[in-house]
Amino acid sequence: MxxxxxxxxxxxxxxxxxxxxxxxxxIGDVPEIARHVMEGIRPxxxxxxxxxxxxxxxxxxxxxxxxxxxxxxxxxxxxRAIVAESFARIYFRNCINSGLAPVECPGASVIEEGQRxxxxxxxGKVTVVDTGVVLEAVPLPKEIASxxxxxxxVGFMRREIEADHR
Amino acid sequence: xxxxxxxxxxxxxxxxxxxEPDEVLWVDVDIAMIHDSGGPRRIWPMLTELGVRVLDPDxxxxxxxxxxxxxDVGAAEILQTTRAFAKEFGVTRFHExxxxxxxxxxxxxxxxxxxxxxxxxxxxxxxxxxxxLALGMGSTDLFGVVATGRTWLRxxxxxxxxxxxxxxxxxxxxxxxxxIIGDHGMSGGLYRVLEFGGPAIxxxxxxxxxxxxxxxxxxxxxxxxxxxxxxxxxxxAERGVDVEPGxxxxxxxxxxxxxxxxxxxxxxxxxxPHRHDDVVPASEISGVPVGxxxxxxxxxxxxxxxxxxxxxxxxxxxAPGVLLQVAPASRGAWEQAIGDGTAATLMEAGAxxxxxxxxxxxxxxxxxxxxxxxxxxxxxxNARGRMGSPDxxxxxxxxxxxxxxxxxxxxxxxxxxxxxxx
Lengths: 166, 422
Known about the structure:
The complex is a heterodimer.
Chain A: E1 3-10, H1 17-20, H2 30-34, H3 45-48, E2 54-57, H4 69-77, E3 81-84, H5 89-98, E4 101-104, E5 116-120, E6 125-128, E7 134-136, H6 142-149, H7 153-165
Helix pairs in contact in A: 5-6
Chain B: H1 5-13, E1 24-28, E2 31-35, H2 40-50, E3 60-64, H3 73-89, E4 94-96, H4 101-107, E5 116-119, E6 133-136, H5 139-148, E7 150-154, E8 158-164, H6 173-184, E9 193-197, H7 199-202, H8 206-214, E10 223-225, H9 230-237, E11 257-262, E12 269-271, E13 279-281, E14 292-295, H10 297-300, H11 303-313, E15 323-326, H12 331-339, H13 342-348, E16 352-353, E17 374-377, E18 393-396, H14 399-408
Parallel strand pairs in B: 2-3, 2-5, 3-4, 5-6, 8-9, 8-11, 9-10, 14-15, 14-17, 15-16, 17-18
Antiparallel strand pairs in B: 1-7, 12-13
Helix pairs in contact in B: 2-5, 6-8, 11-12, 11-13, 11-14
């Protein structure tokens, strides 16, 4: 999953987990929670997204609560990567741990909704397919990339356990 | 090169002499906390999937605070799962309906200076008030921590927040931290540790100090920390725990920035809907009508907050058309309020007393808001829909400001209702 290409949904700065998944839905499980993703600021978002789509946002994406269902719900509706100028730190961790690529890209604001972007996770590049513009992204440290590569922390630990048993 | 207190704690946990900012390291976790919402119901299936167990139940604290008391069968099931997890894995430090996790971790002296503490909640940073490195993470991270006792982290840069002077009468740590957040914005401390110090901090008790570390989550920081001093040592000694002051940052430690404030110049402030960094003086927005006044959460319903509210409410009544609700942050806080007459004052003024727990703050428990409701709250966040309907509005302020608004029926500068020295 080192190259990810998809259609862009654009959001602004400081998108809060209370907006991504409001607390009143936390009682449920992920498939049910996922139907309500972003409904406060983009009603019907879960139905608009097609598998493989990408979110592009401003700074401090995922600020607020530690709820990692706010990442798992994104995966459940088909989002495959989030490109943001910066991430709230817990949301960034939750992405890594759940296998959803968080791409820190300070110049992301030039990307427009509906465009297609191609993300090269290893090289740290985000290419806007429609315009050819290439943006620099912050490459993931190898320790963190290896968790993402395993599909998240559960997969990473499974690899470690299997390695111990060899 | 000197090390900050955060670097020192991480170095010890990583079995290193020193660490440098931006390094990514695996560290040993001294103590972990999980709660009913993000805890067992999310973590247990992951443990089962890998066939692993809780590594060390004695280094784990469990708290049921989000879904107590159960409001429906789904909530009751979450609480049952949490109890079953504690039993299955032998977790003895398990508290149901005894208070909010962040308040209990401090009150029960589970945290000690110099510890590396990981909690499954964004307000875990509260614990930094006792001089430990308190890191909030999500359920999957906590799964890793309870299964292995370890986690990864990026060594943070530190911002020194130096507070001179002393807070004036009617002005609180909540006003101070909201002022700081208003100045720097909700991502102003992103990935950094805020290390608080200075004369104003030295003069504050642990409960008020904890509001500063608690709301480091609202400025995007990795955590907040107040290195243990005499106040910390006495607080822990009262709870039967003997510690020395420190660890502290070296004199020649490198800070990313230093923010200086004069506490004497801080005034009562309010954060307006729907951003907690949209902060204005209470006097500037006085007259905004409120129908709900909420005193609750780890941020704003400790014993010290209840006392502040009582100071304003003594001999007064909640205005007609306003519902004042109080959800104490812990059973201990409420017992103390009963003992010193604070509870009676709140009730005589007309407050509706709710169960201890997170309550309406995360939009889960009792007292959530309906469409069009306008609330002033001692809690920490006011994103759209946080406390209930996306069409409700939440203003954030101190317990003084919330109590004053409850009496006036509108936002006021709380000093208007207090005896303030000329």
